[in-house]
Design brief:
Strand content: 15-25%
Largest sheet: 5 strands, mixed
CATH superfamily of the largest domain: Reverse transcriptase/Diguanylate cyclase domain
Structural class: alpha/beta
Shape: elongated
Number of domains: 4
Number of strands: 16
Length: 528
Amino acid sequence: MQYTLKDVLSNKLFSSAKLLSANKIVSSQLVESVSVMEIPVEDFVRKNEFVLTTAIGCDGSPDLFLNYVKDIYTSGAAAMGVAIGRHVQSIPKDIIEFCNKKNFPIIELPWEIRFSDITKTILEQINHWEQTSIIQADNIQRELLRLYLEHQSFEKAVHYLMKEFQMDVELTYDEVFQDLHDHGKSISLDKEEPSIIRFHDGHFMQVVPIHLSNKNHCFVLIKSKKLNTPPIPWLVLNQSSTILTLWIQKELTLLNNKQKELKEFLKCLLNGNWGDKEDFIHRGEQLGYNMNLSYVCIVGHPEKPEEFYSIHRENIDNHFPKIFRQSFSELIESSSKKLNKQIIYTFQRDSIVIFLECNTIESSRNANHLLDMIDAKVEQKKIPAISWGIGENHAGKLTFHLSYKNARTALEIGRSHKGVGSRSTFASTGIYQLLISLSNNTFATELMHSTIGAIITYDRNNGLDLLHTLSSYIYHQGNVSQTARALSLHRQSLLYRLRKIESLTNRSLNDPDDIFLLQFCLKLWTVR
């Protein structure tokens, strides 16, 4: 294990020394060298160096002493040992408070202890530790290489390291670590050099960056499970990471090949060009999908995910922030387990495409159940609002392209006429599909203009909204009182507007056929 301040203080030479601050980190505070230092500090202190001092240059000034300690801390020293008895009678309270605040160990040393004895002892211990580390690093590297050459899984290598280190080991591709020990605080990981992160509860995490051939990077995280556990020597971790890099590169190559195969498979699935049916089913099975089941397609459009995550649009790959893809993928995987249904999903341009296992009878219920689970995360502000289209008319075997086409139609019409964040089924958009098909019909267009064109012109010239008044009146089935309340109008004002509508259209609001024609023209106008 790594040589730490705890090893230093456990030596009998320090039996009468007093640790005055940062007692929680002594087990993880690395000590790589030792020196005797007086003012000025400048650049003479190395990182992780145990600094010994008499503070003779402070001339008994508390302020000068405090600044001296601050300089030692800023230099990255492991700890500071102050000889007590001649130039310093005791460590001032404000210095102890500073050291506790910064988690920096400061130690009172009896004047009788020779600095030369301390230096000799620490250097001998460091030398012994280095020799032990070399042996441990060679043994671990040899075992990892054996596992790699035997084509064992990366998980087996991680399990071996966890057992050897007695610590948690994991791999991450994220540059930011969510610190659960410190209430979810985000910590940026160093992409170039190994580092150690200490938590307020006394635990720590060692971070080893892995540099891959494609210029990408990932990190091996080694997290302590018990308090007072010393860190793993960097020599051991660096040599271990050399072998792990081979594994990771191999795993990434296999993953990239699988993703390319999956992308091509999903492309065929969406456009229906899968050629031989049996071959297509077999390809799906190799990717972990049962193509003999019935599926219904659901297409979602996240509304401005870049604003939700406060990310500039130019920094987003494939229309979606990485954090959204990760969060949504985890949500879909957990939902699949809760529903006990197979789910096939992919990200297509600005949309999410989901195929949910179900039969024709339960397609709508299952689709809405899944969307309820997703929308619950929207309400919790875990993911941005999403508009949905459900292609429920084609919940069958190998009807993926038909269900996808219908779901996208439902999404586009729903967003256009119900607004963002809406949920529409293909069946519920039937009237709009009919109107869209009629919107380019010359006769239908002329009929619409001749019927309600005068109302539109009157609204533009007079600043009224008779078109909305008519729509509300029809929606409330000709009930004047309900319409007046909905529009916040006096009854007489509403009656005046209704008479004006009749005079402009030459249609009677008491004639069912005229009402039907007016409603048809209103919907056609809305679609256009």
